[in-house]
Amino acid sequence: MSSSNTPLLYTVGTPNGHKASIILEELKHAYGFQYDFQKISFQTNEQKEPWFLKINPNGRIPALVDRSRDNFAVFESAAILLYVAQHYDKERKFSYDPIQDPDLYSEQLQWIFFTHGGIGPMQGQANHFYRYAPEKIPYGINRYITETKRLYSVLNDRLADREYLVGPGKGKYGLADINTFPWVRSWRWAGVDSLEAFPNVEAWLKRIAERPQVKSGLDVPDPQGPPLTKEEEEKAAEEARKWIFQSQK
Length: 249
What we know:
By secondary structure, this protein is α+β, with helices and mostly antiparallel strands. The protein has 9 helices and 4 strands; from the N terminus they run βαβαββααααααα. Helix 1 (15-31) packs parallel to helix 3 (77-88), helix 1 crosses helix 8 and helix 4 (102-132) runs parallel beside helix 6.
């Protein structure tokens, strides 16, 4: 049961938000870890309100306030993953110890940063130009979709003879996978037409998506519905455009 002493996640159902909720659900299942979450309203620009900016000066989700550690605040999705692993993944089921396993810890960081500095920003720009931009700019659309595909090819090569991104042998499911999965599972939204050229990535996505804790993490803060039709995608994008451009004013 959650309480006022549990970590509190401020989030929305985006790839970055889902990174945080998936690791928290994994910790919940593995250790009985408890947390609370609160949905932030993009429609009302809640992430720009003074109370939230005290938690995350950048005005973005997710953000975590660890009420069990004197309300220590953490922002940036990858930083949240590393923070909760440091303090709550006591048996290192999803992470590596920097002292006991320094090489694997470094490998973990490399693949986390690969997504944090590559797939996330590039696919985010693909989302913008393909879905949200007020005018269709072919150069922007092609530039970012092409770069997203290139980054997928790096993942595909990495996964050629392994099941997960980091770890000896076939690898161990962990932070690097959790950090990357929510972005790559949203490939259609970014305008990527197919994963046919990335069979190892497709198998990896399926493998992770089958985990019950991943499914429950994707239901935070709102339950996931069935895949959208083309018409529903356009309607969702149109609704999102309203608050995206409102937040830029």
